[in-house]
Each structure stands twice: as C-alpha cells, then as structure tokens.
Amino acid sequence: xxxxxxxxxxxxxxxxxxxxxxxxxxxxxxxxxxxxxxxxxxxxxxxxxxxxxxxxxxxxxxxxxxxxxxxxxxxxxxxxxxxxxxxxxxxxxxxxxxxxxxxxxxxxxxxxxxxxxxxxxxxxxxxxxxxxxxxxxxxxxxxxxxxxxxxxxxxxxxxxxxxxxxxxxxxxxxxxxxxxxxxxxxxxxxxxxxxxxxxxxxxxxxxxxxxx
Length: 212
What we know:
By secondary structure, the protein is mostly helical. It has helices spanning 7-30, 43-70, 75-96, 98-112, 119-144, 150-171, 174-181, 189-210; strands at residues 183-184, 187-188. The protein contains eight helices and two strands; from the N terminus they run H-H-H-H-H-H-H-E-E-H. A hairpin with a 2-residue loop joins strand 1 (183-184) and strand 2.
C-alpha cells in the first residue's frame, strides 16, 4: 500500500474527511453571515440598481401626470405611485442585499428546526404559491384597472412578474439557482430576467408620459 496506509486507515480517513465537510456545510447553513452590501458589485448589478432608481423616478412622474388628469383619488395615480415606491424599495433591496438575508434566515430556521434536509417540498409549495399569486394578479389587475391606459396595465403586469421572480429567487430552489447562475452573452440569467422586467416597467412609464 502506498505511504504505508492500510485500507482500513484510508477508509477511516475518508470517512472523517466527509464528516468534517458535512459539519462545515451544516455550520455554514446554520450561520447568519449576511453583510448589508451589494451582492456582486459588477457592472450588471450596478446597472440593475440604476434601472430600479430610474424606473422609480419615472413612475413617480407618471403618477403626477395621472393625478393632474384624473384627480388625486384616481386608481391610475395610486398605481403609479405604488410602483414608484416599490421600485425604490427594490433598489434598496439590491444595494443592501436584503433578499439574501431572508434566504439565509430561512435556511437557518430550517436547520435548527430539523427539516433542512427535507426542504425541497416546502420550497416547491412556496414557488407554487408565488406562481399562483402572480397569475391571479395578472388576471385581476387589468380588471381592477379596466379604465386605465394600456401603459398602466403593462407597468402593473411587468411589476407583478418582476416581484414574482425576486420571490422565487429568494426561495433558492437548487435547480432554479443553477439555471439562474448560468450565463448568456456574458450575463447571468438572473440579471437578464430582472433587468428585462424592470425595463418593461420603465418603457411603460415612458409610454404613459408620451401619451399625455
């Protein structure tokens, strides 16, 4: 045997190494090591934050114009103001990496309660609930805002899809995480999808102002 190691000793060494790796992984899962800063300070991440802020400002302006047209209590005015505040919050979420904190907290709770190894059914249920909520919102919002302009409908649908994507990403299902971490034209899919959703809302807001 090379190096004078007996098969039984080698097996014990491998077993001890696996046990140590498992304990290290469990400790990492159970820990809460969130740092309030942007997750990955690349151009794509800063672009995402800039788009959130630009969209928030644009939607606030669209809400002001809707107010001038229809009065303070119009649904369209409130919808644009809500989107503006929401996207400002999402910009802060991206800057402070708040969704990662939520994901880490969920993992720590699952570990301490003893169901982390059986988390996949729970994640699937949460993803299903988020998807159902998205579908219901896409159906209900145009009905609630049936008198609103098409740009407002588009902005509400884009907002719903963006928020749903963020929630599903925060659930951190392994297969979804693997897909979102892959790259297309140099960008990860999670950034492509998120930037796409933000851009839809920004374009809808600009459309609303142009039709004024």
